[in-house]
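INFO batch 0412 | record 1 of 1 | parsing
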Amino acid sequence: VSMTFAEKVKYVRGVLLISQKDLAKELGVSNVTINRWENGVINPSFLTEKKFEAFCNARGIEIKE
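INFO prediction complete | emitting tokens
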């Protein structure tokens, strides 16, 4: 069972113990955007999703597809 993008964002924030605001700053998006991702309101663009994956990889966070 693969995780939704919303679940991935929540998982990564939980692992790193960071706020939506902190993650938003790291990814160059607004904290409203992070909130919308986590609530499944919107999904990121392809490029932003790749940036999120690179952010996770750089921190050694493995997300199971």
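INFO post-check: The chain has a mean pLDDT of 95.
INFO record closed
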